[in-house]
Amino acid sequence: MTPRPRGRAALAHLRRLAALLRPYRRRWALATLALVLGGAVNLAIPQTARLAIDRAMAEGDVGALDLIAGLAFGGFVLLGALTLLRHYMMSWLGHRVVADLRHRTFEHLLRFPPGFFHERKTGELTSRLTSDIEALQSSVGSELSMALRSALTAVGGLVILTFTSPGMTGVMLLVVPPLAFVAVWLGRTIRSRARAIQDLVAQANGGLEEALAGIETVQAFGAEPVESRRYRDRVLGAFRAALKVAMARGAFVGSVQIGAFGAVTLIVWLGARGVIEGTLSPGVVVEFLAYTLMVASALATLAEVWGNVQGAVGASERIFELLDEVPTIRDAPDARPLASPRGELVFDGVGFAYPARPDVPVLDDVSFRVDPGETVALVGRSGAGKSTIAALTLRFWDPAAGAVRVDGHDLRALEIESLRGAIATVAQDPVLFSGSVRENIAYGRPDATDEEVRAAARDAHIAAFVETLPDGYETMVGERGVKLSGGQRQRVAIARAILADPRILILDEATSHLDTENEALVHQALERLMAGRTTIVIAHRLSTVKAAHRIVVMDRGRVVEEGTHDGLIARDGLYARLAKSQLEE
């Protein structure tokens, strides 16, 4: 396919930016009306100067002079009021469009499966929602307002100049074509370099995010100078790229100003000769000079705005590329909800390899069945594919071969929201968010009552601890729950799963951070939670595995054994060896 020309691509992005204003067209219409009326008043003001000079001053009519001055003052007041209205409305539109775009982009990101985020740095994605979108705010708001105002002034001024003195207007028009050529050429340069800046800033943010997230590792290995130097190099790279853009913009605006104000100088010279020769009146010269300055200033503003808009287009390209990207895991057009789930789970000849390593199979012809209410433990060495089975059950990935079914339905035929609403997970390293204890427990059910939250906390044997906190259930846990110990975070995650009341429960090393006493208490809670629910247990501890109805043993992505604990021990196979070497440690 032939690539679309850059000019057409820029126009396409500008149209998409303009489309963001559509929900607020009434405010846009009001702002445009204020702009048009303000432009008309602004264009009328030089007429008062001409009348004051050619009539009131030349004829010595003080009354006429007072009237003209009063009209001019009234025009200034009206222009100020219209400017205030236009500026407020355009600023409102700019901020609102940016807020909408941020929400829309974040909402779109939330639809992507975890694999999407594994392949991209968090800092780069954050940069899309911050600096990239921020670059659009002035373009949609103040820059757009300035462009429209300047265009109206330039066109209106040129029309009046043409009727006033066609000859001198021709001098002005000689300047416009070269300026247009320079604007197009430098505008493309600015856009491409502005995009390069956003890419460099995103890379710097990505490195910053990684360094701060892994600050303990950085400090433990004394790598502060390395990380500091790496971040400095990236920031300076963005700085050097920004200087090139500043140079291009400066050359752009400077060339426009040289041409525009050079024409003003020529107009003054021609007008003065006309007055001396008697072909022009002083008032007409002042009027023409005022309109010339207005047109020149408008052209200079348009040049600067065009350069800024080109930079914004460079940022918008990255935003729209992200918005145009389609999640690999999404609802099929005919997807249906999982109604009244029973919890039957079937893996039927499932094969899978991660996209980053397509030649390394993680699962190979995996088949097993979990009946409603049954507890099945997955056991195997690290890398055997146990966690991948949990990820496929949640449909974070789709199998390359075979099918995963819940209640007889292929997961690809179900609505993702309803599927995941029937599943709860307690991971080895549970993620808590930087809200309160209550908010984290009720994360899957934000509408839960206080009593329901407290009941879930009691079942997870964390209620007594929470009540000792300074603000009880409203105590903030810090980013990723840093204010809680590992065992406390684990129990909050278990309470969250209890409150979600799932039909399918996935326990991925759910008791690994608990001491012996707390583990026994939580096991009691888990037994109540697991009763009547389909449960997948991924564990190494023998105490957790022994309680399962069946044990599925995996090795190198395949199911190699299946049975009860006693039966597998008697078989003296892989499970028996794992029990001796790992499960009893």
CATH architecture of the largest domain: Up-down Bundle
Span from first to last CA? 61 Å
Q: Mean pLDDT, as a whole number?
A: 78
Count of distinct structural domains: 2
Report the top-level CATH class of the largest domain. Mainly Alpha
CATH topology of the largest domain: ABC transporter transmembrane region fold
Low-confidence stretches: 1-5
Query: Outline, from the CA principal axes?
Result: elongated
Largest sheet: 6 strands, mixed
Give the helices and strands as they follow along the chain: HHHHHHHHHHEEEHEEHEHHHHEHEHEEHH
Strand order of the biggest β-sheet? 6-7-8-3-9-10
- Strand pairing plus helix content: what structural class? alpha/beta
The CATH homologous superfamily of the largest domain corresponds to ABC transporter type 1, transmembrane domain
Which bin fits the share of residues in helices?
55-70%
Quickly describe the structure.
It contains 20 helices and 10 strands.
Topology diagram in text:
Elements lengths: L5 H14 L5 H35 L2 H48 L4 H5 L3 H43 L1 H8 L2 H38 L1 H6 L3 H54 L4 H43 L20 E8 L10 E8 L4 E6 L5 H8 L7 E6 L2 E2 L5 H6 L1 E4 L10 H5 L8 H10 L3 H5 L18 H15 L3 E5 L7 H15 L3 E5 L3 H5 L3 E6 L2 E6 L1 H7 L2 H10 L2
Helix pairs in contact: 1-10, 2-3, 2-5, 2-10, 3-5, 5-6, 5-7, 5-10, 7-9, 7-10, 9-10, 14-16, 16-17
Q: How would you describe what is shown here?
A:
It is a single chain. The protein is an alpha/beta fold. The chain folds into two domains: 24-324, ABC transporter transmembrane region fold, CATH 1.20.1560; 345-583, 3-Layer(aba) Sandwich (Rossmann fold), CATH 3.40.50.300. The protein is 65% helix and 10% strand. It is built from 20 helices and ten strands. Strand 7, helix 17 (516-530) and strand 8 form a beta-alpha-beta unit. Helix 9 (224-277) packs antiparallel against helix 10 and helix 14 packs across helix 16 (486-500). It is elongated. Mean pLDDT is 78; it is low at 1-5.
